Amino acid sequence: MGFFDTLNQARTQVYVISFVCFLCPGMFNALNSLPTAGPDAQEVKDKQNAALYFCFAIMGLLAGGLNNILGPRILAATFSIFSGAYIGLCAGMLWAAQEGYAMNDAMYLIFIILMACGSVVAFLIQPPGTIIREDQTQVETPPTNVLREFVEILKLFGNPAMLTILIPCMSSNWFYTYQFGPFGGYFSGRTNGLKAIFYWLGQAAGAWVLGNMFLDNTKYTRTARAWTGVYLMVGTTIAFFGGGAAFEYVASAKDFVKIDAGTDFGRFIGPFILYICYGLYDAFFQVFTNYLIGAISNDSETLSRYAGFYKGTQSAAGGLSWALNGFVFTKDKALTSTAQFWVMVIPCAVSLIFFALFTKTFVKDTTDENPEHGSSIKAH
Questions:
Q1: Long-range CB pairs of 209-214, under 8 A, 24+ apart, other chains included
Q2: Per-residue confidence at 103, pLDDT binned at 50, 70, 90?
Q3: Cα–Cα distance, 121 to 130 (Å, whole number)
Q4: Mean pLDDT of the chain
Q5: What secondary structure does DSSP assign to 331-360, as a single string?
Q6: What's the burial of 223, exposed, middle or buried (CB within 10 Å: 0-12/13-18/19+)?
């Protein structure tokens, strides 16, 4: 059986969507983590990200309903084609004024080509109603309409489960402002680019280990997996941010010299491992938040709205963090790197309380899809 013969299989669709995510938003993340040419360029980047994430917040919130109405194939393909065209238009303006950016034409062109490839791959996404799960059941897609989706989206803001997970949702992109901003200022330009590669490799490895090898491992009950995830988040928050605090204390000294991997590898290795740990933590945080949201329903239509709520609130908070740097705390009013570090840590630490509360209150080993009829589905 060839690849195209298995397009309606759930696992194949996971691979397809993974490649779309890698080639489209993945390339954006890679671009976003590259160093800028100076403070002025960083301020522009902060403002640009604020605008992007606020738009993302609106569309992210609505995306669940749009997905239920249009289907993922139309939605993903349309997004990919539009974003590719828009990036192409912006590329001309960027090339005309590129002195402020630490990137050349060839590198930017490579990113555009990769994103265009993602647009093509998006056409392989199949309608949900045609997808066959691994247990040979077919995904059900009940009819819906714009009014119903609008009402259901509004109801999310009164949903106890969504309100409980709100703080973790909002915290899951909050740390990018520090990690892609002040933390990068402690390294030389070429070293910055090197460590960025391993940040995303660390994130990929973290997502695979936590998600594929454990949270999706049905040998353990859903509640056991969820509680182990809570313990993991507590441990990594203390360990990784404890290491980050120690490095920040040393690096914020006035006589600190920027780290260069080529000339002083001994000074580089510790912060390098720390940055990989930040990538791991990013993956752990987002994968676990997604897992908890997915643990309270097996219905694809409901989960689509939950995912939209997650991305919408995540992006709103992310936009706020970039806006604070780009519009409020600028130039002489800029926060110190140490202050930005603690601004990053506190929401993540508070999120641990809500992870535990959500797990205790909402995560069960069976999912009640129609509680009024007393029906439940075993967790998987």
A1: 210/283, 210/284, 210/287, 210/288, 211/287, 211/291
A2: low
A3: 18
A4: 81
A5: GGGPPPHHHHHHHHHHHHHHHHHHHHHHHH
A6: middle
